[in-house]
Each structure stands twice: as structure tokens, then as C-alpha cells.
């Protein structure tokens, strides 16, 4: 579970973003092999900017709201956290303010799982994908869609600089009900 | 003019001025085209790591030595078929393999790398037949599992014969030697026996040719052979004195040498002077032998880089800080270095000085030292007796020499026998026995980098990581520049989760030799430990590029691919690893894991079983075999294997846990709980143990206990996936089992 640093959440559901990417060690980035697409983009500021690990490049949409970022995985994956980097100070009216996250098997059956509101965010915005039920720490899905419903200052188009998606690491020892955490177990748990 | 040119070329080669040698030699060949000169030129190229040049100039040559050099170039360029054709021409099936033992060894390697095992074995055996001290051939036999008693009395007899024939020819040439030595290089008397030359080649080849395959098992000879060898010199009470090499030049050079080094008492000076003796012996050979001698000492590309790097960097002081007999180290290293340069005594002092700077050719020195033990021990004892009176004693001393020679040989072979036995057993993964054999070695032999590494490796195979760590650490202390076996050490540290030590090791190895696969394997292990699988993979791929015949690098690539869930590439990597070394059980294990994940349980079981057959002592392998059997629902067999695993290694908690798992799936809950209670004692902070207990209590409907243990498990902060599982199990605690789907 991502730890939300102080100041990130003013009121329930309103996020402001933190300077540092703060992700637990037992999570790993899941979307390297996924297919990313966007609903529209300005030439030169396309979908690649979302994945290039460069906070200076950004995706700029170029169409009607809502602006969509679609992430399709090769198989059903467990996801826990979505993190995006936005910067109000630089992007102002391009900064997203209301974001909806949908999940499903494909474009035909996406269902909204979370809505968040951002208030002048600067930095990484951590959005946990779990529900309150402990059974729902992860969402199990083929596809994720991030929809920017509205921007700050009623801007039409949006800038998003980076998006990362996290899920749990697989157990290095296959077919185990639980992970091993103690040193004694880990030493003997695999051969190399 | 020709002789002058030849002389210059050879002295350049001796002093490692390769470009100068090449230039002069090219002029020589233009002026006096002859096959011998071509051979010299090829040698210059091979020295300078330009195998392709040597290849082109020697193409089509028929003389045995040319064929050998050509085969060598082909081998380095990985043109194995041509190399084979050169050594064993198809239209002359009965032609003798050039250079005897060395040729057979090279041929054996070629056969091994082209997958013709029986032929390979055959040639290695022949090589050992011709030169019983050819350790590298023995090593290959061990790897191919065909080794047996080689360093025995028959071998002793053969070596003795060789030495005697050498010494007789030495006596003949001693006069001429003596006179011509101080002045010129190209000494005329080249009538030493063919076997003598073979020995030189064999000695040199051994060291270099063992390099190409560079697997973990490759020649990792003791780096610090200095102290050991010196004591070795002294152990045989009456060391055989080979035809006394003329002392006066020795004297003079010994003085020079002493001045250069600032000697540390007679031992060193003796050794140093002794060094000159065998060199001079070989100096008198025709230039062919000299050429080939130098050729082999430098044809391993990695070694050359290391040489050029280290020659510049190292100093006497560095040499002296190694081990107790610090200065003796350096002298022993000089031994190796000098031997490989096979220079004449004229250039002794300069060579010696330049060679003093050389250090850390780990495997080189042992080879040469071992070999020299017999040959140089004679000169050793010669020196204290009054150097300048040697020549007089020579004549009458010959008979007495023989008996000392015999005992010296026997002693040497005894040492090789022990080492050989230990190595053979560890190749067969009979690690416990191997350890016992290594313990029989003398203190000074044991405390050498190679032996300590081997011992560490044996412990690793037995899954005794703490002991392995200890021995590898000692090995590093004794010889900090050894790279052989350090990849295994990095894996040991990986398993022990010693991230600091591991990253320190990796950094050190990279700084020693950026072009060694072991260093990059260690680096990769470092990143792998921190779960940065992409970077780890990149590092392992680098290791593979540096040496595609290094099986472990392939296996580690495979592991990283699997961690990244790219099973296809993982399987490919494991298979490449097995192509290099069929007995690399880690690769079999890796394949088993992939199939286990893909739920192809029969394949998984088959592969784990293969791994287990290769290394039957590993409790981890047994555990996984049991897990595969359990997945196949062969629970009785699974439990049996688990029992074996538990008894094989008391420190390994995993088989106990797996046993409990299997028992609980068989609904033998009480037994399962008993096992888990035991585990609780030895691993009290393992959340999975409590979680499993909670699960069992839940099945037994003992809800309070279940809650208690689930709570304990959660307190230990397991990863999020487990937290989710446990929490949902807790929620469903009061629901009947039929509604339960995952737990």
C-alpha cells in the first residue's frame, strides 16, 4: 500500500501531490509491457512522453473532454497503485483536476473504480486502486483507463508528465500460499 | 642480418614490446621469407592479440609448429573446424599431432566445444600420457567426468624419464651454455629432447589454454604459490639436482637481482636465482620453442589485458604485502613471469626488474611453479652450495641427482594427486569427500587462492553458505586478484542477503578486471538482490558477451528473465547454459522453476530430478523436487524426498515448511502443526509459518487459535499480497468452508 505523505491529502479524495515517488518495496512497476494509447494528442507530445521517465516531457491532449489514457495488459494483472506526475505551477490550466479511473476487460466493459480530485497538485500524485475492503487491496484486470474529466481553471486540454502503475511482486518461490520474509527462509528458498 | 633480426624480434617479444616485434618481424619476413620466420611473425601477432593476422599468414602451412600456431589462431577466433583440420589433417589420418601434449590438449578442447565428448576425452588422455604434469588436461577430464588416477607412479616414471633425458642433454650443452650465456641470446645448442620442448609447451599451454573456456571450473590455480613452492623446494631433503646450470652467470645475475629487489634473505635469492636456471635451460633451445613458449603465455586475451594493466600498476611493495611470506610471493610470481618470458640471462636483470612489477596472474604462477618445482629445485639446492663451484660438481653429481630427482618428482606428483582427487570429486559434486581430500593438503598449499576457492565452492554445493562465505573470504584475503570462483562467492552473498558485502565484492572485481565475466556476474547479483531485475539482466548479458563459454552467466540471465516473467527467453538462456555445460545443475533447476510456474508439472519434476542427480547433496534441490512431486499429487514420494532434504541439512527450514504444507493438504493437520511448531523455534520471525498455522487452525475450526496466529503473521509485516490474503481469511473465519474459494 502506498504511504501517503503529509500534505498530500487535504480532505478526503482531494490530492495535491508529493515531491517524491514513494512506493513500497514489495510493489513493482507493472506496465512496461502493456499497450498504452491516448484519446488524442498534439504532435510531439504523444503517449511516449508518459513513459519516458522524463518529467520535462509531457502528453498534451488535443480534443474533447474527457481525455483518455488507455493501458492494456497482456494478461490479467493485479494492480495496487497508480501514480502520475503533474505540475500546477508550470501547467496551470492544463493541470487535470478531476480524474476517473476505470477498469475492465476491454473498451466494452470498463467500469469506474475510483474518482479523485486534485487541488493544485505539484509532483507525484499517488492514487491507490484498492477499496476499503481488505479483500480488495488489488484490482484484477486486463485494462485500465485513466480519464481526465476536467482541468484546473476550466482548461480544455491537459498535460500529464508521467504515469506509473504498480502491483505486487510475484512470489519468487512458485506455488506458495505465502511469501517468505525472514532471512533464514529466504537464504534457502531458491537456488541461483 | 637474419640472425640479428631474429634476435631483436625475440628480445622485443620477451620484453612485451609487441608492436616493435611485429614491425621488425615483418621486415624479417620480407627480407628472408621462410616458414620459420613466418612462425615467428605469427607468434608476434598472437602475442599482440591479433589472432586474425596470424591466421592469415599461416593459412596452408604444413610444418607441425605452423599448424599448431594456426590451430591456436583458429581456436581464438572460434573457427573450431579449421583448427581441428590444422591439427588433424583429414588426408593424413596418421600424422602426429604437432607439439605432442599441447597439441592433444588443444585438440581435446576443440572436440569438447564441438560436442564430441569421447574424442575429447581420448585426446586429453593422450596429452596426459605424453606429459603427465599437464594439469589443464586433467582438469578437462574432470569436467567431462572421465578422470581417474593420473598422477600415479607410472606418471612419475615418465616424468623421470623426461627429466633424465633433459639433464643428459643439458650436460652436453652446459659448456657452450656457460660461455655463450652472458653474451648472446640465440644460443646454438638446440638439441634438447623433443619431450623437453613439449614440456615447455605443455607448461605454457596449460596456463593459457585453460583460459578460453573460462568456466568456474577453469584453471583457478593458487595465486599465492610462492610460499608453498618455496617450502616445496625445501621439503625434499635431497632435492634432485638437474644438470647444474652454470653458476657464474647465475651468481652475477643473482646479485643484480638482489640489488633490484632488496632481497629478503637467502630463500628469495635462491628462488630468484633458481628462476634463471630453467629459463636459461630453455633459452638454449631453438627459437621455435622460445617462440611457442612465449606464444602460449599470452594468447589468452583476457590475460593479456590483465597483464598490460597489472604490469604497469603493480609494485614490489604490493607484492610484499600478500600473505606471510610476502617477498617470497613476489619471487614466486617472478618465477611464473620469468618462465613465460623465457628470456636469456643476458637480459636477466632488466627482465627481472620488469617482471618484478608483474603480479597477480593467478593461475599462471602455480602452473609454472609446479612445473618448475622439479626443474628448479635442483638449481635451488645448487646455490647455497657455493654458486661458483657448481660446474665442478656437475659431473660427479649426476648420479646423486637422479635419486633426488625421483623423490622430487614423487613429491610433486603426490601434491598433484591430492589436488587432482579433490578437483575430480568436486566436479562429480561429491563435495563432502572433496573437502576431506583438500584437508589433506599441507598448510601452505591449502592457504592458496585456488584451493580456498575450491573449498568454498564445495561448501556452496552442499548449501552451507556460511562456511562457503568464510572460505571465499579467506581466498580473497590470500589472493585479492583472483577472479575464478568469485561469481560463486557473489551468489553465496546473494543467498545470505549480505548486500553490503556483495556490492563491495562487485566493485572490487570490476576494478580488478572490467573484462571478466565473474565481475559482471557479481554486479548483476547485486542488482538482482535489490530486485532491480532489468539492470541485473543487463549486467549478466554483459558477462555473456565477454565469455559465451561461461555457463553460469547464461544461467543467471535465465534467472533474471524468469523474475521478469519472460519465460521464453528464460528457457533459451538456460538451454544455452546447458549447451556449454551439461552438468550445470543450476540451469536444470532454472528450467524446473519455469515449468513449475507454467504448471507443466511433469516437466518440472523431470528437470528437478536431473538437477538432483547431478548434485544429490543439495537440500534445496530435494525440496523443490518434493514440491514438484506434490504438485503432481504424488504426495507419498514428495514426503519421502522432503524427509531426505530435512535430514540432509538441519539448517534449512524450507523442507520442514513444505512438509507441513503437504501434510496439511493431506489433512494430516496434527502432524503439520507439529512441524510448524518446530519451525517456530528456529525461525520465529517468519510470518508464513504463523499464517500457515492460522490456516490449519481455521480448517480445524479452532477459530480463536486461527485468529491468534493470523494476527501474529500480520504483526510481522508481510508483503501486501499476504496481508490481503490473511485479512480476507480472517474475515471469512466464521463462514463455513464451502463458501471458501481461495483459502
From TrEMBL, chain A:
<keyword id="KW-0131">Cell cycle</keyword>
<comment type="function">
    <text>Component of the anaphase promoting complex/cyclosome (APC/C), a cell cycle-regulated E3 ubiquitin-protein ligase complex that controls progression through mitosis and the G1 phase of the cell cycle.</text>
</comment>
<dbReference type="InterPro" id="IPR004939">
    <property type="entry name" value="APC_su10/DOC_dom"/>
</dbReference>
<comment type="similarity">
    <text>Belongs to the APC10 family.</text>
</comment>
<dbReference type="GO" id="GO:0005680">
    <property type="term" value="C:anaphase-promoting complex"/>
</dbReference>
<dbReference type="GO" id="GO:0051301">
    <property type="term" value="P:cell division"/>
</dbReference>
<feature type="domain" description="DOC">
    <location>
        <begin position="6"/>
        <end position="192"/>
    </location>
</feature>
<keyword id="KW-0498">Mitosis</keyword>
<keyword id="KW-0132">Cell division</keyword>
<dbReference type="GO" id="GO:0031145">
    <property type="term" value="P:anaphase-promoting complex-dependent catabolic process"/>
</dbReference>
<dbReference type="InterPro" id="IPR008979">
    <property type="entry name" value="Galactose-bd-like_sf"/>
</dbReference>
<keyword id="KW-0833">Ubl conjugation pathway</keyword>
<dbReference type="GO" id="GO:0070979">
    <property type="term" value="P:protein K11-linked ubiquitination"/>
</dbReference>
<protein>
    <recommendedName>
        <fullName>Anaphase-promoting complex subunit 10</fullName>
    </recommendedName>
</protein>
<dbReference type="Pfam" id="PF03256">
    <property type="entry name" value="ANAPC10"/>
</dbReference>
<dbReference type="InterPro" id="IPR016901">
    <property type="entry name" value="APC10/Doc1"/>
</dbReference>
UniProtKB/TrEMBL annotation, chain B:
<dbReference type="GO" id="GO:0016567">
    <property type="term" value="P:protein ubiquitination"/>
</dbReference>
<keyword id="KW-0539">Nucleus</keyword>
<dbReference type="GO" id="GO:0005737">
    <property type="term" value="C:cytoplasm"/>
</dbReference>
<dbReference type="GO" id="GO:0051301">
    <property type="term" value="P:cell division"/>
</dbReference>
<dbReference type="Pfam" id="PF14559">
    <property type="entry name" value="TPR_19"/>
</dbReference>
<dbReference type="GO" id="GO:0031145">
    <property type="term" value="P:anaphase-promoting complex-dependent catabolic process"/>
</dbReference>
<keyword id="KW-0132">Cell division</keyword>
<dbReference type="Pfam" id="PF12895">
    <property type="entry name" value="ANAPC3"/>
</dbReference>
<dbReference type="InterPro" id="IPR011990">
    <property type="entry name" value="TPR-like_helical_dom_sf"/>
</dbReference>
<dbReference type="GO" id="GO:0005680">
    <property type="term" value="C:anaphase-promoting complex"/>
</dbReference>
<keyword id="KW-0131">Cell cycle</keyword>
<feature type="repeat" description="TPR">
    <location>
        <begin position="585"/>
        <end position="618"/>
    </location>
</feature>
<comment type="similarity">
    <text>Belongs to the APC3/CDC27 family.</text>
</comment>
<feature type="repeat" description="TPR">
    <location>
        <begin position="517"/>
        <end position="550"/>
    </location>
</feature>
<dbReference type="Pfam" id="PF00515">
    <property type="entry name" value="TPR_1"/>
</dbReference>
<keyword id="KW-0677">Repeat</keyword>
<feature type="repeat" description="TPR">
    <location>
        <begin position="551"/>
        <end position="584"/>
    </location>
</feature>
<feature type="repeat" description="TPR">
    <location>
        <begin position="687"/>
        <end position="720"/>
    </location>
</feature>
<feature type="region of interest" description="Disordered">
    <location>
        <begin position="294"/>
        <end position="327"/>
    </location>
</feature>
<feature type="repeat" description="TPR">
    <location>
        <begin position="101"/>
        <end position="134"/>
    </location>
</feature>
<keyword id="KW-0802">TPR repeat</keyword>
<feature type="compositionally biased region" description="Polar residues">
    <location>
        <begin position="313"/>
        <end position="322"/>
    </location>
</feature>
Amino acid at each position: 500500500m502506498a504511504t501517503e505523505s503529509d500534505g498530500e491529502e487535504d480532505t478526503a479524495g482531494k490530492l495535491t501531490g508529493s515531491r517524491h515517488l514513494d512506493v513500497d518495496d514489495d510493489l513493482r512497476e507493472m506496465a512496461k509491457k502493456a499497450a498504452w494509447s491516448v484519446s488524442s494528442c498534439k504532435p510531439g507530445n504523444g503517449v511516449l512522453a508518459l513513459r519516458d521517465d522524463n518529467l520535462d516531457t509531457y502528453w498534451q491532449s488535443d480534443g474533447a473532454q474527457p481525455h483518455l489514457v488507455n493501458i492494456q495488459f497482456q494478461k490479467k494483472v493485479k494492480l495496487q497503485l497508480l501514480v502520475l506526475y503533474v505540475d500546477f505551477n508550470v501547467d496551470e490550466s492544463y493541470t487535470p483536476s478531476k480524474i476517473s479511473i476505470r477498469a475492465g476487460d476491454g473498451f466494452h466493459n470498463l467500469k469506474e473504480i475510483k474518482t479523485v480530485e486534485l487541488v493544485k497538485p505539484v509532483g507525484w500524485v499517488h492514487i491507490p486502486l484498492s477499496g476499503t475492503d481488505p479483500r480488495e487491496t488489488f484490482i484484477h484486470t486486463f485494462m485500465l483507463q485513466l480519464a481526465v474529466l476536467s482541468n484546473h481553471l476550466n482548461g480544455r486540454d491537459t498535460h500529464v508528465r508521467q504515469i506509473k502503475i504498480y502491483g505486487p511482486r510475484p512470489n519468487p518461490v512458485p506455488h506458495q500460499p505465502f511469501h517468505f520474509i525472514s532471512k533464514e527462509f529466504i537464504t534457502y528458498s531458491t537456488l541461483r | 642480418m637474419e640472425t640479428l633480426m631474429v634476435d631483436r624480434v625475440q628480445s622485443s617479444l620477451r620484453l612485451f614490446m609487441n608492436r616493435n616485434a611485429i614491425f621488425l618481424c615483418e621486415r624479417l619476413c620480407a627480407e628472408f621469407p621462410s616458414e620459420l620466420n613466418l612462425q615467428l611473425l605469427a607468434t608476434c601477432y598472437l602475442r599482440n592479440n591479433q589472432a586474425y593476422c596470424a591466421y592469415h599468414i599461416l593459412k596452408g602451412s604444413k610444418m607441425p609448429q605452423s599448424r599448431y600456431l594456426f590451430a591456436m589462431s583458429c581456436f581464438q577466433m572460434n573457427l573450431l573446424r579449421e583448427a581441428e583440420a590444422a591439427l588433424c589433417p583429414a588426408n593424413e589420418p596418421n600424422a602426429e599431432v604437432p607439439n605432442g601434449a599441447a597439441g592433444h590438449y588443444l585438440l581435446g578442447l576443440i572436440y569438447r566445444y564441438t560436442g564430441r565428448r569421447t574424442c575429447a576425452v581420448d585426446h586429453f588422455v593422450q596429452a596426459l600420457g605424453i606429459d603427465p604434469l599437464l594439469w589443464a588436461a586433467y582438469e578437462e577430464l574432470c569436467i567431462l567426468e572421465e578422470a581417474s588416477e593420473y598422477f600415479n607412479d607410472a606418471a612419475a616414471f615418465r616424468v623421470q624419464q623426461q627429466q633424465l633425458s633433459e639433464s643428459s642433454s643439458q650436460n652436453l650443452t652446459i659448456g657452450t651454455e656457460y660461455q655463450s650465456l652472458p653474451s648472446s641470446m640465440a644460443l646454438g645448442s638446440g638439441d634438447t629432447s623433443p619431450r623437453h620442448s613439449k614440456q615447455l609447451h605443455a607448461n605454457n599451454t596449460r596456463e593459457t589454454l585453460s583460459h578460453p573456456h573460462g568456466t568456474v571450473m577453469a584453471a583457478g590455480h593458487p595465486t599465492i604459490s610462492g610460499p608453498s613452492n618455496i617450502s616445496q623446494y625445501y621439503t625434499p631433503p635431497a632435492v634432485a639436482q638437474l644438470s647444474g646450470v652454470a653458476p657464474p652467470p647465475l651468481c652475477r645475475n643473482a646479485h643484480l637481482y638482489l640489488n633490484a629487489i632488496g632481497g629478503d634473505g637467502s630463500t628469495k635469492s635462491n628462488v630468484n636465482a633458481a628462476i634463471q636456471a630453467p629459463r636459461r635451460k630453455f633459452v638454449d633451445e631453438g627459437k621455435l620453442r622460445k617462440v611457442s613458449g612465449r606464444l602460449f603465455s599470452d594468447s589468452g586475451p583476457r590475460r593479456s589485458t590483465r597483464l598490460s594493466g597489472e604490469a604497469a600498476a603493480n609494485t614490489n611493495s604490493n607484492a610484499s604485502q600478500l600473505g606471510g611470506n610476502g617477498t617470497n610471493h613476489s619471487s614466486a610470481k617472478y618465477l611464473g613471469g620469468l618462465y613465460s618470458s623465457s628470456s636469456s640471462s643476458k637480459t636477466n636483470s632488466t627482465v627481472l626488474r620488469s617482471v618484478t612489477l608483474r603480479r597477480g596472474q593467478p593461475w599462471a604462477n602455480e602452473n609454472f611453479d609446479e612445473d618448475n618445482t622439479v626443474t628448479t629445485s635442483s638449481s635451488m639446492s645448487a646455490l647455497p652450495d657455493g654458486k661458483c663451484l657448481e660446474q665442478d660438481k656437475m659431473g660427479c653429481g649426476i648420479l646423486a641427482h637422479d635419486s633426488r630427482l625421483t623423490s622430487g618428482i614423487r613429491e610433486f606428483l603426490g601434491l598433484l594427486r591430492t589436488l587432482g582427487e579433490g578437483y575430480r570429486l568436486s566436479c562429480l559434486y561429491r563435495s563432502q569427500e572433496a573437502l576431506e581430500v583438500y584437508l589433506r593438503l599441507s598448510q601452505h598449499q591449502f592457504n592458496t587462492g585456488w584451493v580456498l576457492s575450491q573449498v568454498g565452492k564445495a561448501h556452496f554445493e552442499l548449501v552451507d553458505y556460511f562456511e562457503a562465505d568464510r572460505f571465499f573470504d579467506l581466498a580473497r584475503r590470500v589472493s585479492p586478484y583472483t577472479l575464478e570462483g568469485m561469481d560463486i562467492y557473489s551468489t553465496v552473498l546473494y543467498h545470505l542477503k549480505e548486500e553490503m558485502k556483495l556490492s563491495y565484492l562487485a566493485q572490487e572485481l570490476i576494478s580488478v578486471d572490467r573484462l571478466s565475466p565473474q565481475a559482471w556476474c557479481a554486479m548483476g547479483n547485486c542488482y538482482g538482490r535489490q530486485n532491480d531485475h532489468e539492470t541485473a539482466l543487463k549486467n549478466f548479458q554483459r558477462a555473456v558477451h565477454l565469455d559465451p563459454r561461461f555457463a553460469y552467466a547464461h544461467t543467471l540471465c535465465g534467472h533474471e528473465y524468469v523474475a521478469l516473467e519472460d519465460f521464453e527467453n528464460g528457457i533459451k538462456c538456460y538451454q544455452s547454459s546447458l549447451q556449454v555445460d551439461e552438468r550445470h545443475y543450476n540451469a536444470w533447476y532454472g528450467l524446473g522453476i519455469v515449468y513449475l510456474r507454467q504448471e507443466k508439472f511433469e516437466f518440472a519434476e523431470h528437470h528437478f530430478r536431473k538437477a538432483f542427480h547431478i548434485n544429490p547433496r543439495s537440500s534445496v534441490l530435494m525440496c523443490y523436487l518434493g514440491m514438484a512431486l506434490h504438485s503432481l499429487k504424488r504426495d507419498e514420494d514428495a514426503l519421502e524426498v522432503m524427509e531426505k532434504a530435512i535430514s540432509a541439512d538441519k539448517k534449512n527450514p524450507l523442507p520442514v515448511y513444505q512438509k507441513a504444507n503437504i501434510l496439511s493438504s493431506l489433512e494430516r493437520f496434527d502432524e503439520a502443526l507439529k512441524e510448524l511448531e518446530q519451525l517456530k523455534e528456529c525461525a520465529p520471525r517468519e510470518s508464513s509459518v504463523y499464517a500457515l498455522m492460522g490456516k490449519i487452525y481455521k480448517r480445524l475450526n479452532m477459530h480463536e487459535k486461527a485468529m491468534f496466529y493470523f494476527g501474529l503473521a500480520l504483526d510481522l509485516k508481510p508483503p501486501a499480497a499476504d496481508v490481503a490474503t490473511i485479512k480476507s481469511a480472517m474475515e471469512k473465519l466464521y463462514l463455513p468452508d464451502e463458501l471458501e474459494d481461495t483459502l
